[in-house]
Every structure is written in C-alpha cells, then in structure tokens.
Amino acid sequence: MKKSISDLSDDFYKGKRVFVRVDFNVPVEKGRIREDYRIRRSISTIEYLAKRGGAVILASHLGRPKGKVVPELSLKPIAQRLSEVLRVRDVKFVDGCVGKNVKDIVGQLAGGEVLLLENLRFHKEEEVNDIEFSKELASLADIYVNDAFSTSHRKHASTYGIASFFEYRVAGFLVQKEIEVLGKVRDNPDRPFVVIVGGAKIKDKISALKSLISKADRVLIGGAVAYTFLASKGISVGDSMIEEDFLDWAKEVMIQSEEKIFLPEDYVTAPSVGKRREIKLTYGEIPTGFKGYDIGQSTTARYTHEIMKGEGTVFWNGPMGVFEVDEFSHGTVDVARALALAYWRGAHTVVGGGDTVAALRKAEVLENEVDYVSTGGGASLEYLGGGEMPGISILNDKE
Ligand code: ADP
Ligand code: MG
C-alpha cells in the first residue's frame, strides 16, 4: 500500500509547497477544451491540499510537442478552466515549468494558492527522465504528490525522476482510487466477472488481455480485435484488419478457454469506412473485398444479454466497432447502454480507455451510470496486466 495525501497529518501542509503531477492531457481544439473529465477528477486533491494551507504547484503534459514550444499545446486555457471549475480559487499560470521566473513566482505563492506550470513536454528532458531537469522541478517544492495515474506507467522526469528528491512523495486521491478500483478488478473481482474487449489492436492490450482472460468468467470480444480471433479459427474475415503476429496466441486462447469466449457471428461490413453506400450485414463469413466495422445485430443481442444481467463485475475496454461513424456505431452504443442497465441492476461496472469513454458519451450514458470510469488508457491496461507502474512504485509505502 502506498501512502496518500490523507496519511499525512492535517497541519503538515501548512506553509509548505506541494508539487502535484496531474494529468491535464485533455482534448483541446483551437484553445477550447472539448472535454474536462480529467480536470474535474483532480479537484479533490487540489482542494484538500489548498484547504490545509499548502501552496499547490500543478504540473502536466498536453499532447506531443516533442521537446519544443508549441503554442497550441499551452496549458494556459486549462488554468482558466480549472479556475472556473474550482470557482472560488483563482488559478495562477506561469509560462514555463523551470527557470528563474518560475522560481520567483513559486516563491511568492501563498498557502492555499494554486499555480499551474506550462506544459512539461515543451522540454525534451521530461520524457527522457533527465536527472538535472528532475532536480530543477523538485527544487520548486517540499512535498511531491503523484495524481497522474495515466502517465504512471512511464519513467518520465515529472513522474519518476523527480520523486527521489523528496522525503515525502505520496499518492493523490485520483491515483489512490484508480489503484483501489483497478486493483480489485485485477485481483478480486465480484463474480461473475464479465470482460468486454474491443478496439483497434491486440498488440496494445496483450498483457491486460492475458490477465483478464485468465480471470474472467466470460469474455465478449468485438472491435478489430475479434477478427484475429475469428481468423485463428479458420473463419474467413474478408479484408478485415487482422494481426498476423497474434494468430497463434489467439488460437491457443480459443483452445484453452473456448467455453468462456464469445466471438461475433455477424458483422456490419463495407469495402472501406468511406464506402457507406455499400454496407452489408453479413453472417458467418465475410466475403473478400469487405471489412468488418461493427458487430451485427444477433451478436449485439447475445452480448448485451450477458452484460445486462446486472450481476458481479463488468469491465469494458475497447469499442465494438468504428463507433466514430454512425453506421458502424450501433454495436458499441448498445453495449454502452446495456452496461448502464447492468449498473442500475446492481453490477459493479468499470470502464477504461480513451475511445471507450468517448463511446459512452456517444451513447448518452452518464458518468453516474457507471461505477467507475478510469482516467488511464494505456496505464489502466498496464496495471490490469500486472505490469510495473514506476510512478507509483517510487512513492512512500504506508507504514
Ligand atoms: P480505447 O482507447 O478505449 O482503449 P482503442 O484505442 O483500442 O480503444 O480502440 C478504439 C479504436 O478502434 C476506435 O478508433 C475504433 O474506430 C477502432 N475500431 C474498432 N473496431 C474496429 C474495426 N472493426 N476495424 C477498425 N477499427 C476499429
Ligand atoms: Mg484509444
């Protein structure tokens, strides 16, 4: 167990500067924030520290500026949104994350105030875990808090290198909650345990898939992932996306766990995503020249039937089809709605993955119709697969 901010005494924070690594990597288009779930999820940590008299220094990355200053990837609009979200507190912003100016501004920060630093990835040192850069960042504060679960599987300066410079390095509430919920799914799920997997690539999910398949009672497979499984059984999938490298693995899984694995039996297909006038619903096999872009109606009925029973745990990662396109979104939307129904019927439901969360929104499933929406995409899968999370391992252990 890792120490969290609530394991330090209430008066501990008074007059101290607290460096909080958050993940404010939210979709921003032309300076406008399209979606702010990750920002809202950081509120409890920020307010907890500020209320106890800590001077809160927030640091995050945004997008992939690759070590250069990219004005469109400035965190400035996020400081503005955070001010609005927190309402009372005026969030300050500084146009950098290291250097003299930043030091001066941090030096003037009073207890209870909140300051957001500029995009960490404007410096190439961040992603290579540069030790001098880590030290510079560390010199800004007295206490280190990691509340960026979604980057904790990376050894970056702000998630890893920095931590060793602090005697007190603890988890924020978001990180604590992610570990608690995903840890339960991984180690001790309420049964029956139903896993829904879809999305683009097995490659990105292989360790999580291995772990989840071995623990689940039922695994419902959709998305592009399904076609590799179908192909491994010798079913023709036309020109659908398959991953040659995982055919043998999928075949082995089907031999060992056939009874709990559900594969699609019908599909919404087209020659390409753009050729929507040629959409065909096919059953069994997909003809050459066509690709599967969604699960079909009878598959959807079979899957939703399993999901909406409302028992045990249901974990979902990866859309059932190319849900961004309306014609290929029905399977995903129906699965999302079945998940909401399962929640209302009493199942413990957990969702992870950036696109899967976007799919929930498309289905108009509200945040409070899911037990838990993880903020970590790759990080959640890494954690579920039992992989190492350097940004968490490096934190203080609970006594
Ligand atoms: P998440 O972000 O939730 O982990 P992924 O990134 O793995 O999910 O997968 C999401 C992407 O997978 C979506 O962009 C979707 O269009 C794509 N996808 C789903 N099904 C298919 C399919 N049959 N063929 C091609 N792409 C697919
Ligand atoms: Mg994705």
Q: Count of helical segments?
A: 14
Work out the helicity level: 25-40%
Largest sheet strand order: 5-6-4-1-7-8
CATH architectural name of the largest domain: 3-Layer(aba) Sandwich
The gist of it:
The chain has 399 residues and is an alpha/beta fold. The protein has 14 helices and 17 strands. A six-stranded parallel β-sheet has the order 5-6-4-1-7-8. A six-stranded parallel β-sheet has the order 11-10-9-15-16-17, sandwiched between helices. It has a three-stranded antiparallel β-sheet with strand order 13-12-14.
Q: Could you name the key traits of this structure?
A:
Rossmann fold, six-stranded parallel β-sheet, elongated, alpha/beta, binds adenosine-5'-diphosphate, 399 residues
